[in-house]
Amino acid sequence: MVHGYGGHILRVDLSSGKILREKTDPGHMLATIGGRGLNSRRLYDELDRDVDPLSPENLLLIGVGPLTGSLLSTSAYMTISGKSPLTGILGDSAAGGFFGPEIKMAGYDQLIFTGRSDTLSYVYIHDDHVEIRDAAHLAGKDIFQTTAMIRKELDDNNVQIAAIGPAGENLVRYAIVACNNSRVCGRTGMGCLFGSKSLKAVVVKGTGMVSLAQPLKFMELCKKLDQRILDHPEFHDRHELGSTLLIKALNGLGILPVNHFQQGTAPYVDQISGQALARKYKTKNKGCFNCNINCSRYYVTRQVESEGPEYETLCSFSSRIGSQDLEFALKMNQYLNRMGLDSLSCGETIGWAMECVEKGIFDKNDFDGLEFTWGNTHTIEQVVGMIIRGEGIGKEFSMGTRYLADKMGKGSQKYALHVKGLDVICGDPRGIKAFGLTYAIASRGADHLRAEPFFELTNRFEEAEKRFGTRQAADRLSDKGKAALVEYTERQALLTDCMTMCKNVGLSMDVMDFELGADLLRAGTGLKFTADKVNQSLRKTIDNDRRMNIDFGITAEADTLPHRFTHEPLSEGPSRDQVVPIHDMVRQYYEIKGWDRNGVPLKP
Amino acid sequence: MLVIDINKCSGCRRCETHCSFYHSGKTGHSGARIKVEKIEILGIDFPVVCHQCQEHYCTKCPQKAISITDRGSIEVSPTLCDLCGACEILCPIGAIEIYNEIPHVCDLCGGSPRCVEACEMGAISFEPDVKQSVSLEGFRQKTKKMSPAKKRHAYALEAGETLRNEWSVNNRRE
Question: Half-sphere exposure (CA, 13 Å, Cβ side) for B71?
């Protein structure tokens, strides 16, 4: 028997109701590892490239890795993949919480959903019992209600549920899937994919255990990793503030998105900072499965209580759209999680509209009378409601910024900040060049998590020279050595995704390297993982993802950044006068990858 | 006994994971002897574990398989136990449950509880000198006929009430 892995792949065809349970093939796992790697390979092998993302033929995959749910700290993640309804290219999104480990304890490595159910349904998996159940009574219910109702109906408070809200049912292209109410697969519209299959939720109960090939050896390795985490210089801040520490940190670097990336610093930063949130509203720490940082927070305000928010949501609903109101951002965090909307993409549509109005391209008559002025909380609440319900202008907003700007035209496309259709995250790449390169080349669009090169912010110049051949790789404003850095962290990011570790830990804190990763995989599974083999598999997955995206129509031209980041220098703050020389950086990256000048991987 | 501070618990289930690993070399909530009850909608996370209650209801085992050790923890004799399930019914908080034909209950890991070591939040502490001090008599009526999982849920709800009162007072003032 293979240790670590759940041992089975589950196929559920929602059209025919056919359910198939296959044994996991160890050889295949050695080649893909698990999690995102396993999902990507499945798409590469089985997805018809030309399918409409919303058609029944699209695949919906939920993958976990060999060490999910094990003693490995932060092994909490799972990845949902498919062809993205938002971007039309590779789509995937990961979340922590407790859903991933539960899949493993139920004995699975991957859940594959195909087809489309005639009526709204949910799939209930209790170890080897799998059932498609009617969810008509859950139609229109938000994610919190859905979770509560399913638990009540199954008479079990401990089932883990990944569900969509009204936004997913109404096919908002950037709808989310949430588990444990607040752990969210946010990007690339995986909630919309659920909705297109009339799948309201996946419910899992696993009573099995995760076994290990060499438990004692594995425990020693975990202790080593735990020590690296506890000794990390950022440990304390991450524990207290989680990712919200970035509001002040990025403001200090002059790269906090303010008024839709028109400025890099906010004079009101102390009102919206993670510190302010912790001081005024945090009631306690929250953690994902087996975490020793516990970076999430529970908060209570006068209006709402919930878990979170992460930095991206906090910034998307404060400085990025010109709002100084922390309580409003906290309210929106809970509302978006309930209704099932990605805060980043949703925030970008709003920021785009506000800038277009400021620039005089559109006025309120173009937006059903809504006044898109900076920080107008009334408008924000109105438009978010309309997006969720698909009403009026909300219908256009629900298609994503790229579609919206193309449709409304008048040159507004220039202010739609996306790459390959995925909206830019809350970090201004002009002051963090490696991040700029990451947004440009990431296989799911403008996203940091594909390679989060946090390294460039850590001032580790000696280490930069050693790893990437130049001290400048650790200088955030330099473009030198960044292609090498990104190529490295892209593999590191994929490794943490395959092992289903938290990327804040494995990647941003740089505690997971390929040697330790291979040692853990070997001790966990008993398969012959080595650092070389692992790297080979990671490189292959990245190349395959690229080939798949080329099939979806991506060319080298798409590997770039919005005009703002390449041609409009910031006029103030510590990242003043900076732009990203993206063209050259991308070419260097291709070279290091062994791709040709058009970004096509050469045959192996 | 193990003393739980509900204020500090983040609900990460590290205690469960390390508990089941220590006892079986595998991980999973089913095999843990401490079980975290999570009530997400209320922000409550509460590890339920044997309190070594004054009443020690579980010792009314019909096979007399359950006894109390010098440490105050519960000991189940594998030779006497016939898996009748009476202990699950007797315990008011669901701290003993049969899994894989073994009644799972906290044994304090022979004096150095792994959950205490694993918890980075400091939510669990081991007080070797405190034994049989908590009374569950009042609570017992509320969970009669419930499954162990339901009992834990009810117990967490009750424990969380005080916590939530504090939150409301401190944070909604302004």
Answer: 18
